[in-house]
Amino acid sequence: MEIDDLTRRTGEWLRGEGPSSKVVISSRIRLARNFEAYPFLSRADETARREMYRALTDRITETDLGQDCLVVNIDEVEPLDRQLMVERHLISKQHADGEGCRGVVVSADETRALMIHEEDHLRIQCLRSGLQLETLWQEVDRIDDLLEERVEYAYDEKFGYLTACPTNVGTGIRVSVMLHLPGLKMTNEVERLLRAARDMRLAVRGLFGEGTDALGDFFQISNQATLGKSEAEIIDEFGNEVIPKLVEYELNAREMLANERTYQLDDRIWRAYGTLCHARTIGTDETLFLLSHLRLGVQMNRFKLVDLATINQLFLLTQRAHLQKINGGPMDGEKRSIARAELLRQRLGSSN
Amino acid sequence: MGILCQSCKNAEATVHVTDIAPSNGEKRERHLCEGCAEEEGITMKQHEPINTILAKFVEQKVGGSAEEAAKLTCPKCGVSFREFRANGLLGCRHDYEVFAEYITPLIERAHGGATQHAGKVPRRMGSDRGKQTDILRLKRRLSEAVEKEDYETAAAVRDELKVLQGDGN
Q1: Over the stretch B38-47, which tens digit does the pLDDT of each residue have?
Q2: In this predicted model, what pLDDT tens digit does every residue of A68-109 receive, in sequence order?
Q3: In chain A, which residues have their Cβ closer than 8 Å to the Cβ of B29?
Q4: Which end of chain B is more exposed for a tag (fewer CB within 10 A), N or C?
């Protein structure tokens, strides 16, 4: 498998399927792990980094995880390919922008991405569309067991799995769910809910993780505390209590909009469609914002001219790196905005 | 420019809040700018970087001995507490012991008061393979049973959970 193969597909996180997929775009679980025998990355020299990189890629690919996988040495690929992987949620922005020997091992279906030398030596992550935390845990746990047989992790009886930053210590688990909350946004309730989430020690971030803003009504919610609770407790609380409540609030807000603010709701959806079908130049933020309204229209059965798969695909293809990839190479901002508008007009079935 | 902030009447209102009075359900719309919304605790600044929290925390907590703490250096990896304070990253696993006095309260704060690991254990430390998965499955069965008001099943599942969570943790 090659990086270029990725652009031809939608990617797991935007498949738009799975439980609660009307509101939950995707779920992700990651574990942070480090070698017992090496210093953390801030103190590991290039030789140590290479040794660990070699050991990890060898150990990973000798198991069934190596089947049809894509091993990317991030230091050696073009910036555009790094950005592409960020847009597909396979690596973090921090990993793309990092320095030195580092990489990622991605499974063919893009549900697994093992980051080597991000903030920790290894970050095992699994990703699925919809709310599927239990399945994700089983996968992540299995990978962790497989590698633990081959690599000695830094572990302490008191602090659990030791990590470069003490905020990840213990289980090293981060459970994240990407939510689409246009209803709560339109009823002005979203800030209040997110504040409640923060009070519950949950982190709220934007579409592309740490350091990104919430764009187009997409919010990523994840646990912050990793010590003192077991993985099962963290996942159970998150997947069976917090998220179902947020999903319920969003669906209630949508129902209220449909019953009491029908014209305003339809106006948003159709204006979004109008702009997307006719714009001659359009930026990423505006595109996300408008596609979000279109997605809402489709999910609520109020808009039938475009199917969900097309919208999901456009979320990804209109992103900076994807757009340049399908257009054959680097383009400046102005050209990208023009190409983006063209792509949208083509795909949304309007020749105007 | 859109609507002016109703509080400071100085900046554009970008945060719109609908308050619903619990007594009569009466709605009141308010329009605030970013700054005023933050002051009222309606919005929060995006995630404070860990090193800012750290720096603040160390100043408060360690106080007078901050200078002393800053001088501490790990003999294994050479990272000083000062460096850790600046970027939030430790140099090696031994730093957890070397800086224990200062790091433990920090960990406690970051993890809601916890200082003891309660999750998965590597197999070389004792076998608990698949335990978290079993707990997770039982927890789901428990909430399903409670939902269906099947309290007999719920009680049985709860007992099973107790056994599973009781040992080793």
Answers
A1: 766 666 554 4
A2: 999 999 999 999 999 999 999 999 999 999 999 999 999 999
A3: 188
A4: N
**Number of residues that make up chain A:** 352
Mutate to test the interface with A, among B125, B136, B147, B158 (most CBs of A within 10 A): B136
pTM metric for this prediction: 0.83
> Tell me, what DSSP letter sits at residue A118?
S
Cβ atoms < 10 Å from Cβ of B27 = 9
| Residue A102 phi, psi dihedral angles, 5° rounding | -160, 160
Strands (E), chain B: 15-20, 27-32
Nearest to B47 among A144, A161, A203 (CB): A203
The domains located in chain A, with CATH, are 3-253 (3.30.590.10), 262-347 (no CATH)
Q: How far is CA A79 from CA A50, A82, A95, A151, in A?
A: 21, 5, 12, 31
Amino acid at B108: E
All structural domains of chain B with their residue ranges? 1-44, 50-110, 123-165
Q: What is the ipTM of this complex?
A: 0.87
In sequence order, which residues have a C-beta less than 8 Å from that of residue A112 and are 6 or more positions away? Answer: A65, A105, A106, A124, A125, A126, A127, A139, A143
